[in-house]
Amino acid sequence: MAEEAKKLIQFKNIVKSFEGGSVVLKGVTLDIYENEFVTLLGPSGCGKTTLLRILGGFLSPTEGKVLFDGEDIVDVPPYKRNINTVFQKYALFPHMNVYDNIAFGLTIKKEPKDVIEQKVRRMLRLVNLENYAKNDVTTLSGGQQQRIAIARALVNEPRVLLLDEPLGALDLKLRKEMQHELKTIQQEVGITFIFVTHDQEEALTMSDKIVVMNAGEIQQIGTPAEIYNRPVNGFVANFIGETNIVDGVMLEDDLVMFEDKKFACQARGFEKGEKVDVVIRPEHLDFVPREKGMLKGTIKSQLFKGMYYDTICETRLGTSITVKMQVTQDNPVSNPEAGEMISASGFLLDIEDAGELDDAKVIALATAEAWNPETEEYVSIKTVEYDIKPETGNYTVTFATAAGTSITVKAVVVAQNRVESKVWQEEIYAMNFFKKVEDIQESIALDTDLKMWASASAWSLEDGEQVEITEVKYDFDPETIEPGVYDVTFATEGYEYKVSTTHAFEEGAEVGLTFRPEDIHVMKKGGQW
After folding, report:
1. Residue 502 forms part of a structural domain
2. pTM higher than 0.90 for the full model?
3. pLDDT (tens digit per residue) in 202-221
4. Are residues 89 and 185 in the same domain?
5. Residue at a domain's end among 208, 234, 260
6. DSSP string covering 6-33, please?
7. Residue 218, SS3?
8. How far is Cα 276 from Cα 28, in angstroms, rounded to an integer?
9. 39 and 206 in contact (C-beta within 8 Å)?
10. pLDDT band at 171 (very low <50, low <70, confident <90, very high)
11. Structure confidence by residue, pLDDT tens digits, 114-143
12. Do 221 and 331 lie in a common domain?
């Protein structure tokens, strides 16, 4: 907007909470100017519709002020606000024709008939329905009904029109047509439109200004170009279109490092050595012969989209390690004479830990326990017999109660299981392990549990910092798993780039990727607007 544009609406620290303690808006502050087309954009539940309803007078804020032309309108009823609303459900009167639906508000206000005629005819021309004045509204298409609803809202000459996902019920082709029509109508009538949607394309197509919201807070405010090309954080970057976000480090102004390579960019004001997020949009990446690529990669997949291919190019494999998980069924030993039962599982032990064992650790490793089956009271395990050496191999372990109820299981000592990546300067570790069928079936977060059971971890060889294990792979169904030995693979993050291209590639083709300094956008880690 031009600098001289007038502030029409001001939201000042708007908080809205509902019964039960849910807080939908968390201190929203926003200025809207005259004649702007503003879109409130965000996922379902982000608070955008609540903010719109507060402006329309259908809800009151828990805290904060809403100023209209400098006047606080929080206590002003909806019908006294110079604001009209168009909802997704058009709420047209089915017993009235098109003309009477549009004229309804003017009739209620007892405007002269000639004035009503003049205003309604102007609205019909505006929405391209001049020849439909006498038609029954129920016979019209969704797009036509929507235009009637807009005409009915505009005929009263409001200074602001609120549109709450008005295109949601239309098919894709009609939605696109109406996006352009709405923008044209707004420019012709010259009033402020405030549009609510979760559709990024709608926001980018129609808006002068986009307000991106999430979880009751504003994440970023800007023009469509600013929001798309210069997102302030990962949420905005991912929500507004497809994007690639990789870890980087700012070396100095206009120079960033990612994937262990230095690249010119257009970013200033960061600390030297500051960890950042690097954003590159799919359409800003180009394929070139591998030897000419700024990054070198392999085509992982392509999906034809008509005008272009959605392509995934893998430039770096994560560091991975595969271990064995031996799954056992819980088969407790019964001693009816003593009125006891005992159970234990075989276990795997790292060679470094084999020399630091005591009875308590061995009981814990084998999850050994004894109990009275009638009273379900626990019985103490009196003796633990084992001779486990810090050498790879198989060993027996016997657990027994004072009454002689005993069970023998297998312990396997294995060498340290580590994989080192010289290229990426990181190391990953995990150990083979035993687990019971029921432990796997009852796991609520299996990936997390598998990492814990295998003691899986990874770290940088350069600075010793922890590296996140982002992928856990296995080929069994947790719900139907049976006793046996299974492979479990843990891996750190690899690098994949989404690329929009008109070139078709075979899966596995080796390629180069290139981009320009202005195509790289740098964000602070966890940045907020």
Report:
1. no
2. no
3. 888 889 999 999 999 999 99
4. yes
5. 234
6. PEEEEEEEEEEE-TTS-EEEEEEEEEEE
7. strand
8. 27
9. yes
10. low
11. 888 888 888 888 888 888 888 888 888 877
12. no
